[in-house]
Structure formats: structure tokens, C-alpha cells
């Protein structure tokens, strides 16, 4: 009966040809090359995924704060499916932009508009808003999509955002226009239900919100000039953000509504359009 010692002697002895057990050099080289190739491929795939994530963050950062953009890249399905959401919509438009464009060289106008957009983007992000879109000199911001901190908190954030946008204007005018020109803005805010989700074609998709709440906010902003105010909000917004900050200024007929609506503005702020 063979013993362990016999087995050791057999393995280490001349009866075993190591070349039959241990791969030859060409095979070793092949294994090393294959392993290295797989490692390189995996590294390139990882780099590709990282590059794709960074590219997505770059695109998303145009519309969302860095924190929200990061969360969306981690969970992209958040934007892929549409849903009904309750949000607060803010519209802002530069007053007299057409006249300003007639009296300013195009390159200077473009520089001014870029600086303005950069400033309000920072303000909107600081208050947790999403930039839905820029339309020339107008901006549409949404509070409550794709993430919400609660109806009341979203409404209050929109109001705080509007306050800061208006307070920042004098310094902006001083730094960018001097004493020869100035810009003013009108802001409309409304809260309500919307569809929030990704829409568009396969070549161009965008995350946006749609619904009567969007139209109402836009029309409230359009009333600023008529009512000689810089900020006009709806009763729905006031009910959420708190009535103590606001005063009722008029009942007006808003296009698309059967009955006149009560509109409000903030108390204790020089909100006249010419102030």
C-alpha cells in the first residue's frame, strides 16, 4: 500500500515531467496577456461609465443644483417616468428688454444676459429650485420637482427666491450697466398640480412640468406691468407660504379662468415697478 512518503517521492521524482503539469512560457505569456487585456478592458469600461456620469452631471447642472444633479445620476429612473406632482412655479421676465436691446450693441447685450442668467441661476439653486427653461430674457423655475420638501416649504422657498432676485438687482445694475441703464424684472408665482417628467423625441429629451399651474404663473408675471408691481402671487401660493407676508392688491380676470382671481404681493418691500 503506497504511503505519503511514496507519494511525495513520486511527485518530486523523475517520473513526473513538470512541463506536462506547469504551463510552458508561451502559455504563461498568453495567460498574462489575456489577464492584462481583461483588466485594461474593465478599466476602460469603468472610465467610460465615469465619463458618462460626469457628462450627465454637466448637463443636469444646467437645470438642477449640484446636490440634486448628483442624486439624479445615482438614480436616473427618477426622471424617466412622469407623475402628477404639486409644485410652485416661478416666472420672471426682464422689463423693457426690447428697448434695452435697441440701444445696446448685440455683443454687449449677450454679455449682459449671460451675467444675469448666471446670477439668477445661483439664486434659484440656493433656494432649492429647478430651472425648467430660459426663454430669451425670461426664466421659469420650479420648486417641488423632481424633489419636494413639502408643499409649504416649496412655496416659502419660491418666495424667498423672489425676494433675493429683486434685492440683487441694484448691485447687478451697478456692476453691469453703470448709471446709463438699468434692468427691472417682474415675477409671478403660483402653486398647483402639474405633470412632471421627461418628454420629447428620442433625439432630444427634457425634464419639465406641464399644466394649468404653469400657465397661471406665467400670466401672473404678465400682470406685473399692468398692476405696477414687481411681484404678483396667487391665493394658492399665499395659503401655503403664509398670509402674514402678503397683501391683497386686486381681483383680476386671468386668461383661461372663468372667474376673476385674487392676486397678492409682499408686504414691506418697495415692489412698485418703477421704484
Tell me the helix content: 40-55%
**Tally of helical runs:** 11
CATH superfamily of the largest domain: Nucleotide cyclase, GGDEF domain
Write down the CATH class of the largest domain: Alpha Beta
Distance between the termini: 110 Å
CATH architecture of the largest domain: 2-Layer Sandwich
Topology pattern, helix = H, strand = E: HHHHHEHHEEHHEEHEHEE
Remind me, CATH topology of the largest domain?
Alpha-Beta Plaits
Summarize model confidence as the mean pLDDT: 80
Q: Estimate the global geometry from the Cα principal axes.
A: globular
Strand content: 15-25%
Largest sheet: 8 strands, mixed
Low-confidence stretches: 271-275
Number of strands: 8
The total number of structural domains is 2
Structural class: alpha+beta
Detailed description of the structure:
With 275 residues, this protein is of the alpha+beta class. The protein folds into 2 domains: 42 residues; 185 residues, 2-Layer Sandwich (Alpha-Beta Plaits). The chain is built from 11 helices and 8 strands. Strands 1, 2, 3, 4, 5, 6, 7 and 8 form an 8-stranded mixed beta sheet that branches. A hairpin with an 8-residue loop joins strand 7 and strand 8. Helix 3 packs across helix 4.
SSE diagram, text form:
Blueprint: H1 4-12, H2 18-21, H3 25-60, H4 66-74, H5 77-80, E1 83-95, H6 97-102, H7 106-126, E2 130-135, E3 138-143, H8 151-167, H9 169-176, E4 184-200, E5 205-210, H10 212-222, E6 231-234, H11 235-241, E7 246-252, E8 261-266
Parallel strand pairs: 4-6
Antiparallel strand pairs: 1-3, 1-4, 2-3, 4-5, 6-8, 7-8
Helix pairs in contact: 3-4, 7-8, 8-11
Amino acid at each position: 500500500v503506497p504511503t505519503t512518503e511514496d507519494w511525495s517521492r513520486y511527485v518530486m521524482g523523475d517520473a513526473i515531467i513538470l512541463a506536462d503539469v506547469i504551463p510552458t512560457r508561451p502559455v504563461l505569456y498568453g495567460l498574462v496577456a489575456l489577464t492584462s487585456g481583461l483588466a485594461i478592458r474593465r478599466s476602460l469600461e469603468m472610465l467610460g461609465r465615469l465619463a458618462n456620469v460626469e457628462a450627465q452631471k454637466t448637463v443636469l447642472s444646467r437645470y438642477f443644483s449640484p446636490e440634486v444633479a448628483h442624486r439624479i445620476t445615482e438614480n436616473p429612473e427618477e426622471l424617466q417616468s412622469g407623475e402628477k406632482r404639486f409644485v410652485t412655479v416661478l416666472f420672471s421676465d426682464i422689463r423693457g428688454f426690447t428697448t434695452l436691446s435697441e440701444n445696446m450693441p448685440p455683443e454687449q447685450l449677450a454679455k449682459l444676459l449671460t451675467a444675469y442668467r448666471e446670477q439668477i441661476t445661483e439664486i434659484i439653486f440656493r433656494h432649492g429650485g429647478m430651472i425648467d427653461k430660459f426663454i430669451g430674457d425670461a426664466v421659469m423655475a420650479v420648486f417641488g420637482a423632481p424633489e419636494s420638501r413639502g408643499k409649504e416649504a416649496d412655496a416659502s422657498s419660491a418666495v424667498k427666491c423672489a425676494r433675493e432676485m429683486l434685492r440683487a438687482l441694484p448691485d447687478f445694475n451697478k456692476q453691469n450697466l453703470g448709471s446709463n441703464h438699468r434692468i427691472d424684472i417682474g415675477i409671478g408665482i403660483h402653486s398647483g398640480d402639474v405633470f412632471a417628467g421627461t418628454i420629447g423625441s428620442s433625439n432630444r429629451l427634457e425634464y419639465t412640468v406641464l399644466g394649468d399651474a404653469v400657465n397661471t404663473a406665467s400670466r401672473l408675471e404678465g400682470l406685473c406691468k399692468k398692476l405696477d408691481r414687481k411681484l404678483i402671487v396667487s391665493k394658492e401660493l399665499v395659503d401655503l407660504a403664509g398670509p402674514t407676508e402678503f397683501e391683497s392688491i386686486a381681483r383680476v380676470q386671468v386668461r383661461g379662468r372663468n372667474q376673476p382671481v385674487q392676486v397678492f404681493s409682499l408686504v414691506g418691500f418697495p415692489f412698485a415697478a418703477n421704484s
